[in-house]
Amino acid sequence: LFFLIPDRSKRSFHFLSFLPLILRSVGYSTPEWTSCVVRATLVGGVVLRAAEKAAERKWLPSGFPSSISLIFPLLLSISRPEFVPVLLLSYLLGKQLAKCRDPEGLTATALSAAFFYSGGGNSLATVDIAVGYTGLSEYQEWIVGAQIALNAYAPCLLVLGGYLSEISTSDPVNSLCIEWILRRAVSLLGCQLSLFIFRYHLFVWSVFAPRFLFETTHLAVTVVITTLVW
């Protein structure tokens, strides 16, 4: 993933963000230390980006990673090893979609389906709980919840990151965000209608209710992600 990042993004900044994972891979750090540094880097980078946007002027270096790029090391550190190739392919998918003609529609479709790339589904049983405890020596509910959510939507973030790495203007990004939110909203509306129509169905709590819960979560996560990249 580090070598896939385009040169114009100043690989030196990305090297620093990936450095904890590199040290961990060669056995020079513990999982707890690696996760702590990766999380601190993510939070610090997001705060700096937010401060720059609030100041309404650019004062960070041009090659400073975006908020989405800063999440990549954390995603790789908490993901199961067998899903790492899926994350890399998701990133490549986003890069290739950005090169298509009128890529917003295709990319919005890929983003809507990305939740299922790593085995996610419309059942609570498909949510991987174990990854939430990666790099922790004791239970911390906020970190556990955040890592579970990030792992569930990791392919989605990688597809979006690959797409953004190939886009140099803001107009396609804005169009993608709008279309992605609209698709998720329409999907939620359809789920609500089916839930209303089949409200007396025998499996309303085992089939329709979980789907409604996931669609609501998808829309909420989509709004959060698009807010970060808008």
Summarize this, please?
One of its GO terms (cellular component) is endoplasmic reticulum membrane. By secondary structure, the chain is mostly helical. Helix content is 67%, strand content 0%.
Describe this structure in words.
The chain is an all-alpha fold. It has a domain at 1-78. It contains 9 helices and no strands. It is globular. The mean pLDDT is 82.
Topology, pairings included?
Elements: H1 11-25, H2 31-55, H3 67-78, H4 84-97, H5 103-113, H6 141-152, H7 154-165, H8 171-197, H9 204-229
Helix pairs in contact: 1-2, 1-3, 2-3, 3-7, 4-7, 5-7, 5-8, 8-9
Pfam families: PIGO_PIGG (PF19316)
Domain GPI ethanolamine phosphate transferase 2 C-terminal: 67-229
Protein name: GPI ethanolamine phosphate transferase 2 C-terminal domain-containing protein
Number of strands: 0
Q: Sheet bearing the most strands, described?
A: none
Taking the alpha carbons of the first and last residues, their distance comes to 23 Å
- Mean of residue pLDDT values: 82
The fraction of residues in strands falls at under 5%
Poorly predicted segments: none
- Round the Cα radius of gyration to an integer and report it: 18 Å
Q: Helix count?
A: 9
Helical/strand content category: mainly alpha
What string gives the helices and strands in order?
HHHHHHHHH
User: What is the helical fraction, as a range of percent?
Assistant: 55-70%
Shape: globular
